[in-house]
Specification:
43% helix; Rossmann fold; 16 helices; seven-stranded mixed beta sheet; elongated; 13% strand; alpha/beta
Length: 423
């Protein structure tokens, strides 16, 4: 059995490796740990795999990171100009065959899940693959709202950081704009913002999906939240934003913000390069500067600080279950001749999802679980945010101090910012 990790790190990866290795060894299987995801398999470098024993993994479950490291190398990239457009997939299979691997456990997010399914499909029975869903973004479609492993640890660490920033904001009377990871969904941003009691949280899901998010609208939301706080005599706060908002900016604004954007092997813009936090901080400061007002606004990205944190007990227990379940499922697919799938935990029981059952029929990719902005949980999150709402505009006593903080008359303020409270 081989084990590899793909995509970005997440707390609990070592725990999956440990549990899967121990159960496989106890079942009489040999285990090889494959370094750096699919990278060396694509290159045919079989020497980048090493045997794993129970002794090697017996205490790694409490550690962050991955002893096998990880990479974003993508074996599903097609080379249309090559004699074999899918040569990367075939190279991976050839490398695995040389290593004597006929069962593979992949640990990763939606891209790695897609690679795992394509590998099993291309192998046509020559390789059984089981995928363990991992991402701090919590955007894989696990049944029953079950979180992806690593999410709860990342949220816990993120809340500690935001709490510290809020204390600093109160102490120094300033604002922090915090960007949290979440390329496709805003679960982590909402989870951190709601738990830490951040002033407000912004995620892409709250905006209409069929149109881009204008930078000016984001700045309006932040600016009016700050003005409302100022009107209440509290000129400080922390706003949490999901990084995926950056991908919803209009192409012209995105190109202007990052004209030489680098993309990874899956074609994704490296959102860390956008520096959405600093971009918005400058825009907000410029708004106040135009009115002759001075505010201190600092941008802060807390993505990388969360990914390799030691897992909290929830994620350790969860990932030990998943690691064991992956090997248990492999035994099943080897016995029944099935290609494999993704292992999930539902109400304390392991429930495998065969490849193809969790993909989007339109794109062929793994479905994305978005934040349900119609849910009671999200409604509670919104209720405790400090944001401009309809009542602020309709109640003259509430509107007057907010408008005064902006230097506008109540009527002019309503005309300028009233659209934010619509819908």
């Amino acid at each position: 059995m081989g084990i590899l990790c793909g995509g970005g790190p997440a707390p609990g990866m070592n725990s999956v490796i440990s549990a899967a290795t121990i159960e496989a060894r106890n079942s009489g299987w040999d285990v090889l740990g494959i370094m750096d995801g699919f990278e060396h398999l694509i290159d045919g470098r079989t020497e980048e795999a090493r045997p794993l024993s129970i002794t090697d993994v017996s205490r790694i479950h409490v550690q962050g990171g991955s002893i096998l490291r990880t990479s974003r190398a993508n074996p599903t990239v097609r080379d249309e100009d090559a004699a074999d457009p899918d040569w990367r997939l075939h190279a991976c299979l050839e490398s695995l065959q040389k290593l004597g691997i006929d069962a593979l456990v992949t640990i990763g997010g939606d891209d790695t899940a897609f690679s795992a399914s394509r590998l099993a499909e291309t192998a046509a029975g020559g390789l059984r693959v089981v995928h363990v869903p991992k991402t701090i973004d919590n955007d894989l479609p696990l049944p029953g709202g079950t979180p992806t492993f690593g999410f709860e640890t990342a949220r816990s660490v993120g809340v500690q950081l935001v709490n510290n920033l809020m204390t600093d904001a109160i102490t120094t009377q300033r604002w922090y704009l915090v960007v949290a990871m979440g390329r496709s969904a805003g679960h982590l941003a909402v989870g951190i913002g709601k738990s830490a009691g951040a002033t407000l949280t912004l995620i892409a899901e709250e905006f209409p999906r069929d149109e881009p998010i204008r930078l000016s609208r984001l700045v309006d939301v932040l600016e009016t939240s700050m003005l409302k706080r100022i009107a209440h005599g509290r000129p400080f706060g922390v706003a949490v934003l999901a990084e995926g908002i950056g991908l919803r900016l209009p192409p012209d604004e995105l190109q202007k913000a990052m004209p030489e954007a680098e993309r990874d092997e899956h074609g994704h813009i490296r959102l860390a390069e956008l520096e959405l936090d600093r971009l918005l901080a400058k825009q907000v400061k410029d708004r106040f500067k135009e009115r002759g007002q001075k505010v201190t606004v600092e941008g802060k990205n807390i993505g990388y600080e969360l990914r390799c944190a030691p897992p909290i007990p929830f994620d350790i227990e969860y990932t030990r279950d998943l690691g064991y379940g992956a090997v248990d499922y492999l035994k099943q697919v080897l016995a029944n001749g099935e290609p494999g799938g993704m292992v999930t935990l539902q109400e304390g029981h392991m429930v495998p999802l065969p490849f193809g059952s969790f993909t989007d029929p339109e794109t062929g990719r793994v479905q994305i679980r978005l934040v349900n902005v119609e849910s009671s949980s999200y409604r509670v999150a919104r209720e405790y945010m400090i944001r401009l709402d309809r009542e602020d505009l309709e109640d003259p006593e509430k509107l007057r101090p907010i408008a005064a903080a902006s230097g506008l008359t109540p009527e002019a303020f309503r005309d300028r910012y009233g659209y934010l409270a619509e819908g």
